[in-house]
Amino acid sequence: MDLAVAGGQPYSIGIGPYQNNGRICYNKNGVLDSLPGWTSQITMAAMDVDFADMDKNGYLDLVFACHVTPNYIFLADSAGSISTTPSWSSGDMNYFANSLTIAEIDSNKYLDLVISDNSQLGGHGRFKSYNFDSAPSGQSNPDWFSNSGGYGSAVLLEDLNSDNQVDLLTGRWWGSVDFYTGSSDTFSLDPTWNSSTSSVIEAYVLKDVDQDGWMQTRNIVVIYQGSFHVIYLPNKSIEKINSIELNGIQLTAGLDYNYNSELKWVTFTDALVSGDIIEFNYVYSTDRDLLVSNWDSHIGNYLFYNQTNPTSIQTTSVQNNENIVNISPNPFNNTCRINIYSPQVNDLEITIFDIRGRLVKRLVNQEILPGSHYFNWNAIDDKGITVSTGTYLYLINLGNKTFTGKLLLFQ
Ligand SMILES: [Ca+2]
Ligand SMILES: [Ca+2]
Ligand SMILES: [Ca+2]
Ligand SMILES: [Ca+2]
Question: How far away, in angstroms, is 141 Cα from ligand 2 center?
Answer without folding.
Answer: 14
